[in-house]
């Protein structure tokens, strides 16, 4: 009998190991470090959401939802997007409920990108984009945002577009830089993609977490771009329930047809009771429109607590992250700095180099302020004790 372990294995992602988030998580657990690393809230969600899920389960909403999503939730999303951004999506054919935003990203890339295509994305970047592209036999083209402001060099984008460019991946508000796109950025993107078959995949999971009066410039706010875009967002990020793993996609019907083909064989349908609860919860717009103020208070608290630290904080315009520079007091690699912070000071952060395919080191670490006040105070106190090496 052939033993499986003797069969040569050919990996589709030979250079991909355990993510930095798992590595930092394990090291942090070993040293009982304060968690300013993970992009997940450590405070509870609104009890009304839990009551909504419980009620849905009690009413027997425990079997498969329709493949593309619970109809009232899709209608609520279409209504919300039209009210906020002016773009009308048909709830039946242009809205898809997915089992997390990550699954939505994969359905879009898997359904629309073919072997031999090229996909432009911007680094530092969420670490799943490039592997998802490579799994399709396509080539990810990483363009670096211009540090320290982390803006897009649109001339570089023009130079990178070729006859094989099939998709451009956008993320706003941006993880990990915490920067946001402007209306002018959208106009540049529209000009570059005009009269082409390039699809825009727009990761907008932090769409409601913007600060200092900023407006969200997502693809649905730009009528021309909306016609060639797949928008991906997340209920988990919006409502502090990242473990519930429910997201959604918006796209014109012609594009959505291809996403649905992939979605049906990945998940078929997202979790039913959560969809029912979200449908009811979306009826009160304050449940998501208040998020900016909620997280801005946390951002401002952490900034004030770190005034006496040796770190130099970069502006955070959106998301629940901020970057901190240690270039003024250390020449350590950011990965070494992060390890030292965990081992010597008991606080966990993420090195920005982990978000670059080539490990670019700008001497920056990412902090998450999606934490309760006690955690923010304890984490800041630890960071204020850091000394040069």
User: Helix count, per DSSP?
Assistant: 15
Strand order of the largest sheet: 2-8-7-6-5-3-4
Beta-strand residue percentage? 5-15%
Assign the CATH architecture of the largest domain: 3-Layer(aba) Sandwich
Topology order in helix (H) and strand (E) letters: HEHHEHEHEHEHEHEHEHHHHEEHEEEH
CATH class category label of the largest domain: Alpha Beta
The CATH homologous superfamily of the largest domain is called Type I PLP-dependent aspartate aminotransferase-like (Major domain)
Quickly give the structural class: alpha/beta
Tell the overall outline: globular
Describe the largest sheet: 7 strands, mixed
Unreliable sequence segments? none
In words, what does this structure look like?
- The chain has 389 residues and is α/β, with parallel strands linked by helices.
- The protein has 2 domains: 4-45 and 290-384, Aspartate Aminotransferase, domain 1 (Alpha-Beta Complex), CATH 3.90.1150; 47-287, 3-Layer(aba) Sandwich (Aspartate Aminotransferase, domain 2).
- Helices cover 39% and strands 14% of the residues.
- It has helices at 20-31, 47-58, 71-85, 101-112, 129-134, 154-160, 183-193, 223-226, 235-238, 253-266, 272-281, 286-289, 291-305, 334-345, 373-384; strands at 34-35, 95-98, 118-123, 139-144, 165-171, 199-203, 229-234, 247-250, 312-313, 321-325, 347-348, 350-351, 364-368.
- The radius of gyration is 21 Å and the shape is globular.
């Amino acid at each position: 009998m052939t033993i499986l372990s003797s069969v040569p294995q050919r990996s589709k992602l030979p250079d991909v190991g355990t993510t930095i988030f798992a590595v930092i998580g394990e090291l942090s657990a070993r040293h009982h470090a304060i968690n300013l690393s993970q992009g997940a809230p450590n405070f509870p969600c609104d009890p009304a959401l839990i009551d909504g899920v419980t009620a849905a389960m009690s009413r027997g909403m425990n079997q498969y939802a329709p493949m593309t999503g619970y109809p009232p939730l899709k209608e609520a999303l279409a209504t919300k997007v039209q009210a906020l951004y002016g773009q009308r999506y048909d709830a039946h054919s242009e809205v898809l409920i997915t089992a997390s935003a990550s699954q939505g990203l994969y359905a879009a890339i898997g359904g629309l990108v073919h072997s031999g295509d090229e996909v432009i994305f911007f680094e530092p970047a969420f670490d799943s984009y490039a592997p998802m592209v490579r799994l399709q036999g396509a080539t990810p083209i990483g363009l670096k945002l211009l540090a320290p402001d982390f803006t897009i060099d649109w001339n570089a984008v023009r130079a990178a577009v070729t006859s094989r460019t099939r998709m451009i991946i956008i993320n706003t508000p941006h993880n990990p830089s915490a920067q946001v796109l402007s209306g002018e950025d959208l106009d540049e993107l529209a000009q570059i993609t005009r009269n082409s078959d390039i699809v825009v995949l727009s990761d907008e999971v932090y769409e409601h977490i913007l600060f200092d009066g900023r407006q969200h410039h997502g693809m649905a706010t730009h009528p021309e771009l909306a016609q060639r875009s797949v928008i991906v967002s997340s209920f988990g990020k919006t409502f502090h329930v990242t473990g519930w793993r429910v997201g959604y996609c918006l796209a014109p019907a012609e594009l959505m047809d291809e996403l649905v083909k992939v979605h049906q064989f990945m998940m078929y349908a997202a979790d039913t009771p959560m969809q029912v609860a979200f449908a009811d919860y979306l009826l009160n717009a304050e449940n998501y429109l208040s998020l900016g103020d909620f997280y801005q208070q946390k951002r401002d608290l952490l900034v004030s607590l770190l005034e006496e630290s040796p770190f130099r904080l970069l502006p955070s315009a959106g998301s629940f992250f901020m970057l901190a520079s240690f270039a003024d007091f250390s020449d350590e690699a950011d990965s070494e700095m992060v390890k030292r912070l965990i081992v010597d000071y008991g606080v966990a952060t993420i090195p920005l180099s982990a978000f670059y395919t080539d490990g670019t080191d700008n001497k920056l670490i990412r902090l998450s302020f999606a934490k309760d006040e006690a955690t923010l105070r304890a984490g800041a106190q630890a960071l204020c004790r850091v000394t040069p090496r």
